Protein backbone atom coordinates (compact mmCIF):
# COMPACT_ATOMS: atom_id res chain seq x y z
CA UNK A 1 0.00 0.00 0.00
CA UNK A 2 2.83 2.46 0.76
CA UNK A 3 4.57 1.70 -2.55
CA UNK A 4 1.87 3.33 -4.68
CA UNK A 5 1.89 6.71 -2.87
CA UNK A 6 5.71 6.71 -2.97
CA UNK A 7 5.67 6.23 -6.72
CA UNK A 8 3.11 9.01 -7.14
CA UNK A 9 5.16 11.35 -4.97
CA UNK A 10 8.32 10.52 -6.91
CA UNK A 11 6.54 11.05 -10.23
CA UNK A 12 5.12 14.38 -9.05
CA UNK A 13 8.52 15.58 -7.84
CA UNK A 14 10.13 14.64 -11.16
CA UNK A 15 7.37 16.44 -13.06
CA UNK A 16 7.86 19.57 -10.94
CA UNK A 17 11.64 19.43 -11.38
CA UNK A 18 11.40 19.44 -15.17
CA UNK A 19 8.45 21.82 -15.63
CA UNK A 20 10.50 25.07 -15.47
CA UNK A 21 12.97 23.79 -18.06
CA UNK A 22 10.15 22.82 -20.38
CA UNK A 23 8.53 26.23 -19.88
CA UNK A 24 11.80 28.02 -20.64
CA UNK A 25 12.20 26.04 -23.87
CA UNK A 26 8.64 26.91 -24.86
CA UNK A 27 9.25 30.60 -24.16
CA UNK A 28 12.48 30.60 -26.16
CA UNK A 29 10.81 28.73 -29.02
CA UNK A 30 7.88 31.15 -29.03
CA UNK A 31 10.00 34.30 -29.35
CA UNK A 32 12.31 32.67 -31.88
CA UNK A 33 9.52 31.33 -34.10
CA UNK A 34 7.61 34.62 -33.93
CA UNK A 35 10.71 36.52 -35.08
CA UNK A 36 11.44 38.68 -32.03
CA UNK A 37 15.10 37.82 -31.49
CA UNK A 38 17.69 40.43 -32.36
CA UNK A 39 18.10 44.17 -31.98
CA UNK A 40 15.42 46.70 -32.90
CA UNK A 41 15.35 50.50 -33.19
CA UNK A 42 13.37 53.22 -34.92
CA UNK A 43 16.59 54.27 -36.66
CA UNK A 44 19.38 51.70 -36.57
CA UNK A 45 21.98 54.24 -37.78
CA UNK A 46 21.27 56.65 -34.91
CA UNK A 47 23.03 56.36 -31.56
CA UNK A 48 20.69 55.17 -28.80
CA UNK A 49 19.12 58.09 -26.95
CA UNK A 50 16.22 58.28 -24.48
CA UNK A 51 14.48 61.05 -26.45
CA UNK A 52 15.37 59.95 -29.98
CA UNK A 53 15.00 56.19 -29.62
CA UNK A 54 16.43 53.28 -27.74
CA UNK A 55 18.07 50.15 -29.07
CA UNK A 56 16.09 47.14 -27.84
CA UNK A 57 17.53 43.62 -27.96
CA UNK A 58 15.89 40.25 -27.31
CA UNK A 59 18.15 37.24 -26.89
CA UNK A 60 18.19 33.69 -25.57
CA UNK A 61 20.92 32.99 -23.05
CA UNK A 62 22.85 29.74 -22.93
CA UNK A 63 20.81 28.76 -19.85
CA UNK A 64 17.60 29.13 -21.91
CA UNK A 65 16.38 32.38 -20.36
CA UNK A 66 15.04 35.03 -22.69
CA UNK A 67 16.44 38.48 -21.95
CA UNK A 68 15.33 41.97 -22.97
CA UNK A 69 18.09 44.60 -23.08
CA UNK A 70 17.39 48.31 -23.41
CA UNK A 71 20.07 50.79 -24.45
CA UNK A 72 19.09 54.45 -24.01
CA UNK A 73 22.64 55.72 -24.57
CA UNK A 74 23.32 57.11 -21.10
CA UNK A 75 21.38 54.30 -19.41
CA UNK A 76 21.16 50.57 -20.08
CA UNK A 77 19.37 47.70 -18.40
CA UNK A 78 18.74 44.01 -18.82
CA UNK A 79 15.49 42.31 -17.84
CA UNK A 80 14.09 38.81 -18.03
CA UNK A 81 11.18 37.92 -20.28
CA UNK A 82 8.94 35.76 -18.09
CA UNK A 83 6.32 34.82 -20.68
CA UNK A 84 5.40 35.27 -24.32
CA UNK A 85 2.30 34.06 -26.11
CA UNK A 86 0.99 34.64 -29.60
CA UNK A 87 -2.53 36.02 -29.54
CA UNK A 88 -5.14 37.13 -32.01
CA UNK A 89 -3.94 38.41 -35.37
CA UNK A 90 -0.33 37.41 -34.58
CA UNK A 91 0.10 39.82 -31.67
CA UNK A 92 2.97 38.73 -29.42
CA UNK A 93 2.04 39.30 -25.76
CA UNK A 94 5.24 39.64 -23.73
CA UNK A 95 5.71 39.92 -19.97
CA UNK A 96 9.02 41.28 -18.71
CA UNK A 97 10.17 41.61 -15.12
CA UNK A 98 11.97 44.91 -14.46
CA UNK A 99 13.91 44.63 -11.18
CA UNK A 100 14.77 48.35 -11.23
CA UNK A 101 11.05 49.24 -11.40
CA UNK A 102 10.01 46.44 -9.01
CA UNK A 103 7.30 45.41 -11.45
CA UNK A 104 6.34 43.20 -14.33
CA UNK A 105 5.10 44.95 -17.46
CA UNK A 106 3.12 43.42 -20.27
CA UNK A 107 3.32 44.62 -23.83
CA UNK A 108 1.93 43.55 -27.16
CA UNK A 109 4.06 43.63 -30.29
CA UNK A 110 3.01 43.31 -33.89
CA UNK A 111 5.36 42.27 -36.69
CA UNK A 112 4.38 43.67 -40.09
CA UNK A 113 4.69 41.76 -43.34
CA UNK A 114 7.53 44.14 -44.24
CA UNK A 115 9.40 43.06 -41.09
CA UNK A 116 8.98 46.13 -38.88
CA UNK A 117 7.99 45.80 -35.22
CA UNK A 118 5.43 48.01 -33.51
CA UNK A 119 4.26 48.28 -29.90
CA UNK A 120 0.47 48.00 -29.69
CA UNK A 121 0.12 48.17 -25.91
CA UNK A 122 2.27 48.47 -22.80
CA UNK A 123 0.79 48.26 -19.32
CA UNK A 124 1.83 47.80 -15.72
CA UNK A 125 0.68 45.05 -13.38
CA UNK A 126 -2.03 47.45 -12.17
CA UNK A 127 -3.39 47.94 -15.67
CA UNK A 128 -1.92 51.42 -16.17
CA UNK A 129 -1.20 51.92 -19.87
CA UNK A 130 1.68 53.87 -21.38
CA UNK A 131 0.68 52.58 -24.85
CA UNK A 132 -2.87 51.59 -25.82
CA UNK A 133 -4.18 50.64 -29.27
CA UNK A 134 -0.83 51.50 -30.87
CA UNK A 135 -0.78 55.05 -29.43
CA UNK A 136 1.04 56.65 -26.53
CA UNK A 137 -1.47 57.15 -23.72
CA UNK A 138 0.00 60.54 -22.72
CA UNK A 139 -0.04 62.15 -26.19
CA UNK A 140 -2.20 60.03 -28.49
CA UNK A 141 0.67 59.87 -30.98
CA UNK A 142 1.09 56.53 -32.79
CA UNK A 143 3.99 54.33 -31.78
CA UNK A 144 6.77 54.28 -34.38
CA UNK A 145 7.76 51.23 -36.35
CA UNK A 146 11.06 49.68 -35.31
CA UNK A 147 13.45 48.02 -37.75
CA UNK A 148 15.66 45.01 -37.14
CA UNK A 149 19.21 46.28 -36.72
CA UNK A 150 21.23 43.10 -37.04
General description of the model:
It is a single chain. By secondary structure, the chain is α+β, with helices and mostly antiparallel strands. The protein is 21% helix and 39% strand. It has a 10-stranded antiparallel beta sheet with strand order 9-8-7-6-5-4-3-2-1-10. The longest helix is centred in the first third of the chain and has 32 residues, at 3-34. It starts with a helix and ends with a strand. The model is unreliable at 4-24 (pLDDT under 50).
Brief write-up:
The chain is α+β, with helices and mostly antiparallel strands and 150 residues long. It has one helix and ten strands; from the N terminus they run H-E-E-E-E-E-E-E-E-E-E.
Topology:
Elements: H1 3-34, E1 38-41, E2 55-60, E3 66-71, E4 76-86, E5 92-98, E6 103-111, E7 117-123, E8 129-132, E9 135-136, E10 147-148
Antiparallel strand pairs: 1-2, 1-10, 2-3, 3-4, 4-5, 5-6, 6-7, 7-8, 8-9
In N-to-C order, the SSE pattern is: HEEEEEEEEEE
Shape: globular
The order of strands across the largest sheet is 9-8-7-6-5-4-3-2-1-10
- What's the overall average pLDDT, rounded? 86
* First-last Cα distance: 61 Å
Q: Into which percentage range does the β-strand content fall?
A: 35-45%
Number of strands: 10
Question: If you compute it from the alpha carbons, what radius of gyration comes out, rounded to the nearest whole angstrom?
Answer: 19 Å
Low-confidence stretches: 4-24
Specify the structural class: alpha+beta
